[in-house]
Write a structure and sequence with these properties.
alpha+beta; Rossmann fold; Glutathione S-transferase Yfyf (Class Pi), Chain A, domain 2; three-stranded antiparallel beta sheet; 8 helices; 19% strand
Length: 301
């Protein structure tokens, strides 16, 4: 998959521009505030369907303009494809429009997987020390580009989780229908099992890459030379063995059922994919507490 061209219209501080890219490494060079990060933001927008800098699309519209448009031409398996993303300012009643080869996409999530990209920015250097939510988000963004069905499962999971938490709060106040809790628990367990297997498979593959690339980064005998990094999936079931999806679903349902009293008292779901984390280790020790700043940067990279 090779990006051939990217064009911008009224995107951030870019009035009109087109960048033609070459296969291999491309470097953007310019003075401060000339739009280098904005150009990268536009490219990543086509991979993830959202900015890595703001949740508001209107913030990306050039001041005084009604809308922005980014167009990306790529070559995928000898087939040319064109993606466009158009969004409007806060003053406009029009909605965003995304197209693939000129055909409007019904949902922005349809962009995922068409063009895959990995973003690495200064904020990611803190991922080793960051909290579980940041590591889950980093993981989920990567998997969603590879498996669009994973995004749909995450969306269903979040919807069920919200409904279940609302019911638990009602039950804690002596209200709500207790019979609905079992139904929501079954639905939640099903999504948790799929998310568990998908995350476990991805982390296993990622672990192999981390070991290889960390060794290459420290091959010159610098900091970290000879040390072995590893990634460990910390799921809410605290499983050390790998389970098939059907068995994982049973385990999740058992845990949710057994913890009903505690969850009602807490008014929240205490077990599930929203409690997962990735443990980053260096020579078997938690990197967050033992790795140096340089080692943490290498691990993040």
């Amino acid at each position: 998959m090779i990006v051939q061209r990217v064009s911008y219209r009224d995107f951030r501080n870019i009035g009109a521009a087109e960048i033609t890219l070459s296969p291999g490494v491309n470097v953007l060079i310019g003075n401060n505030a000339e739009g280098k990060t904005n150009a990268l933001e536009g490219i990543y927008l086509m991979a993830s369907g959202k900015s890595f800098r703001t949740p508001k699309e209107r913030d990306m519209v050039k001041f005084g303009a009604e809308s922005f448009e980014v167009t990306l031409d790529l070559l995928d398996a000898r087939r040319e494809q064109r993606l466009t993303f158009k969004a409007y300012s806060a003053d406009s009643a029009k909605r965003r429009v995304c197209t693939k080869n000129g055909v409007p996409l019904p949902r922005i999530s349809e962009l995922l997987g068409v063009f895959r990209a990995v973003l690495f920015c200064p904020e990611h250097l803190a991922i080793v020390k960051a909290g579980p939510a940041e590591r889950r988000a980093f993981l989920d963004v990567a998997i969603c580009q590879l498996k669009p069905m994973y995004l749909k499962s995450l969306q269903r999971f979040q919807k069920i989780l919200t409904q279940r938490n609302a019911l638990l709060k009602q039950l804690a106040d002596g209200e709500g229908d207790f019979s609905l809790l079992g139904i929501l628990s079954e639905q939640l367990a099903r999504e948790c099992a799929f998310i568990y297997r998908t995350r476990a498979d991805y982390i296993e593959r990622l672990d192999a890459f981390v070991k290889r690339f960390f060794a290459e980064l420290s091959a010159d005998g610098g900091e970290g030379a000879g040390e072995i990094p590893s990634l460990r999936y910390l799921n809410s079931l605290k499983l050390s063995e790998r389970l098939e999806e059907a068995e994982a679903q049973e385990r999740y349902l058992e845990r949710l059922t057994a913890g009903t009293a505690r969850e009602i008292a807490a008014g929240a779901t205490l077990y599930g994919s929203h409690k997962d984390d990735i443990e980053i280790l260096l020579d078997g020790r938690e990197a967050r507490g033992f790795a140096s700043q340089g080692q943490q940067r290498s691990l993040a990279l």
